[in-house]
Amino acid sequence: SILTYFKQRSPFYYPLVYTLFFTGMRPSEALALTWGDVDLRLGEISITKSRYLEAEGAPKTVGSEREIKLLPEVVEVLKSLKPLHVGHDTPVFLNQDGEPVDFHTWRAKIWYRALRAKGMRVRKPYAMRHTFISAGLSNGVNLKWLADYCGTSLDMIQRHYGKYIRNDSEEQLKRLFGVKSETSSETLDRGSRPKRRQVAGSLEEKGIGPTWIRTRDQPVMSRWL
Q1: What is d(CA 157, CA 142) in angstroms, rounded to the nearest whole number?
Q2: Which strands make up the sheet holding 38-39, listed edge to edge?
Q3: What is the pLDDT of residues 6-27, one digit of tens each?
Q4: Taking Cα atoms as reference points, which of 112, 126, 166 lies closest to residue 142?
């Protein structure tokens, strides 16, 4: 619903919102991106800095510095945003005056206006990151991968998003062994196969193979006699 609003009513900022929803980046990380950090050919972004209060600094934590793979849809959105001629240090996301986005101004005048228009309660833009993480957990993605992708820790994921972590024991057991568990009859049947193969081999040596037999007047193909 929010993306639809931006696409129709505020298309200038649609790429920013789309990227935040589908990468789980912190807003401060997205606003610090330059085109030198983005490889659209490989579909990757290098996150090495953050921008807050109009000042550029290091990422939030040591683990926040990372490279992430982009969904093809995010690559296409960023391709549509990239100018024909752009410098390595040119910010990816600019305001309508061609300057780096001021987060607090954007939040107050653009983001909250979108929420009001859609009849939603006030949420900070950070909610887009929450959406990415909680959706991943609800769909059973690997926790370690998710933590690394979002530049955070497993402990933080478990503490703040625990209610979204799936606890489906049957599904987890299937994943553990990679196959469905067999029934006891299947196990017994599997155990008897070597004996049948031994008998078949012995009969084959004697020249006895599959043979037609007749039961009353109904011909059927027997297995090994």
Answers
A1: 11
A2: 38-39, 44-47, 66-69
A3: 999 999 999 999 999 999 999 9
A4: 166
SS (H, E, C) 69-88: ECCHHHHHHHHHHCCCCCCC
* CA dist., res. 173 & res. 207, Å (int): 47
Residue 37 carries which DSSP code? G
What's this model's pTM, rounded to 2 decimal places? 0.73
> Is the predicted pLDDT of residue 187 greater than 80, yes or no?
no
DSSP letter string over 99-165? Answer: SB--HHHHIIIIIHHHHHHTTPPP--TTHHHHHHHHHHHHTT--HHHHHHHHT--HHHHHHHHGGGS
CA 115 to chain centre: 26
Q: Give the pair of three-digit tokens for residue 36.
A: 């030198």
Residue 144 CA to residue 142 CA, distance in Å, equals 6
Dihedral angle computed from the Cα positions of residues 85, 88, 92 and 98, in that order, rounded to the nearest 10 degrees: -60
Do residues 106 and 95 touch, judged by C-beta distance below 8 A? yes
Question: For the chain, what's the residue count?
Answer: 225
Q: Rounded to an integer, what distance in angstroms lies between the CA atom of residue 89 and that of residue 183?
A: 62
